């Protein structure tokens, strides 16, 4: 419906503005302060990044209620990966926030999202530019695996701090003998992360073929 389409357009516009601000801020800070800006990335743009990623949870709801025709599982995995890395791994450990890997992650995420939300906004209005369509469905194929590697590296960097501070580790009192050692949970999640990467990459190739196949390109041109 027109109302739902307008709602999705406004949602995409808000996300585009947020990610564009982050991306532009990162570039300007790097051009101004050089490598010194990398260690301060989280403290400079972390709040807006957390807001944008929190808002992205709505995309799962959009799929569930049927106003977004994207596949649920791939989108769910991509969103939960970011939520876990940003809020659980990075936000909870101040020592990790100053690592260069945080800047790399934020750069990859925002580069992909600026392109994706620009494409989505124009698509809501029935406008398709072939170079933008190609970029949207092609750029994610090399950049998503790089972001997964950066996520894995962020987890590995955070493990010593989770071990020393005991963050999120739980030991139940007597008579229970059950305990959760959070570094083990993160190590197991690494396996899930890379297993999910294979599934998502396969889905990205399928989406690229569906939107950039010869027949679809001709239809969009016409």
Automatic annotation (TrEMBL):
UniProt xrefs under InterPro entries: Tyr_Pase-like_PTPLA
Pathway: Lipid metabolism; fatty acid biosynthesis
Topology in the lipid bilayer: Multi-pass membrane protein
UniProt subcellular location: Endoplasmic reticulum membrane; Membrane
Reactions catalysed, as given in the entry: (3R)-hydroxyhexadecanoyl-CoA = (2E)-hexadecenoyl-CoA + H2O; a very-long-chain (3R)-3-hydroxyacyl-CoA = a very-long-chain (2E)-enoyl-CoA + H2O
GO MF annotation: an example: very-long-chain (3R)-3-hydroxyacyl-CoA dehydratase activity
Membrane is among the record's keywords: yes
Keywords for the protein's UniProt record, in alphabetical order: Endoplasmic reticulum, Fatty acid biosynthesis, Fatty acid metabolism, Lipid biosynthesis, Lipid metabolism, Lyase, Membrane, Transmembrane, Transmembrane helix
GO biological process: fatty acid elongation; sphingolipid biosynthetic process; very long-chain fatty acid biosynthetic process
Major localization listed first in the record, in broad terms: endoplasmic reticulum
One Gene Ontology cellular component: endoplasmic reticulum membrane
Segments crossing the lipid bilayer: 7-30, 42-65, 127-144, 181-201
Annotated EC: 4.2.1.134
Function description: Catalyzes the third of the four reactions of the long-chain fatty acids elongation cycle. This endoplasmic reticulum-bound enzymatic process, allows the addition of two carbons to the chain of long- and very long-chain fatty acids/VLCFAs per cycle. This enzyme catalyzes the dehydration of the 3-hydroxyacyl-CoA intermediate into trans-2,3-enoyl-CoA, within each cycle of fatty acid elongation. Thereby, it participates to the production of VLCFAs of different chain lengths that are involved in multiple biological processes as precursors of membrane lipids and lipid mediators.
Protein family per UniProt: Belongs to the very long-chain fatty acids dehydratase HACD family.
Protein name according to UniProt: Very-long-chain (3R)-3-hydroxyacyl-CoA dehydratase
Species, as recorded: Vidua chalybeata (Village indigobird)
């Amino acid at each position: 419906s027109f109302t739902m389409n307008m709602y999705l357009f406004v949602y995409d516009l808000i996300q585009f503005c947020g990610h564009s601000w982050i991306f532009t801020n990162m570039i300007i800070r790097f051009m101004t302060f050089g490598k010194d800006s990398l260690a301060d990335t989280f403290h400079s743009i972390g709040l807006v990044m957390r807001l944008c990623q929190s808002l992205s949870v709505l995309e799962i709801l959009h799929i569930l209620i049927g106003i977004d025709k994207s596949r649920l599982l791939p989108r769910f995995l991509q969103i939960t990966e970011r939520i876990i890395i940003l809020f659980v791994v990075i936000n909870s450990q101040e020592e990790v926030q100053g690592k260069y890997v945080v800047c790399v992650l934020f750069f990859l995420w925002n580069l992909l999202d600026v392109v994706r939300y620009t494409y989505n906004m124009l698509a809501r209005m029935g406008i398709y530019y072939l170079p933008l369509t190609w970029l949207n469905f092609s750029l994610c194929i090399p950049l998503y695996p790089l972001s997964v590697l950066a996520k894995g590296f962020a987890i590995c960097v955070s493990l010593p701090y989770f071990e020393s501070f005991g963050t999120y580790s739980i030991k139940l009192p007597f008579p229970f003998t059950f305990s959760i050692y959070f570094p083990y949970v993160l190590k197991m999640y690494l396996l899930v992360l890379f297993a999910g990467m294979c599934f998502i990459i396969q889905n990205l190739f399928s989406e690229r073929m569906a939107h950039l196949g010869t027949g679809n390109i001709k239809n969009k041109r016409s």
